[in-house]
Automatic annotation (TrEMBL):
Membrane topology designation: Single-pass type I membrane protein
Any one GO molecular-function label of the UniProt entry: protein serine/threonine kinase activity
Protein name, per record: non-specific serine/threonine protein kinase
Enzyme class: transferase
Amino acid sequence: MPLQKCYFLPPISYFFIVVFSLLFVTAFGYGSPGLISAAFGENEFFCAIDAGGEQQIICWDKTNKISLVSTFDFVPSMASLSGGEGFLCGIIANNSQAFCWDLLDFGINLVPKTFKYNSYSQIDVGKFHVCAIKGSYFLSSNDFGNVDCWELD
């Protein structure tokens, strides 16, 4: 049986492979929208969208001892979440409207009336502010794209 040749990549090739693969790594922090998000600060909590089909919100407090699932029944089903300083915002699954809440104001949508009934395709949260792109989360259209921003106290 003849010996087979083994080819090795030179060390510089490994360097480029690693650097190239890092280009596709995404970093998350304040305001990164997704299926899982956290509110930061003194009143921090963590929430995720349940993948069970109904897109319900499951939340835990910062001690991770208490599941706040029953407490957050007032939060509608969400398509996307984004967390800020002590609050979370999301896009409601069935109407693409914004909904924001915190641990101190159970059951109150913190979105100002001016923006409460607009449809949004994306939402991002900073420390105390929210920006959302008008449109439908599930449908794309050229009629949308304006950005609404508001502050939360």
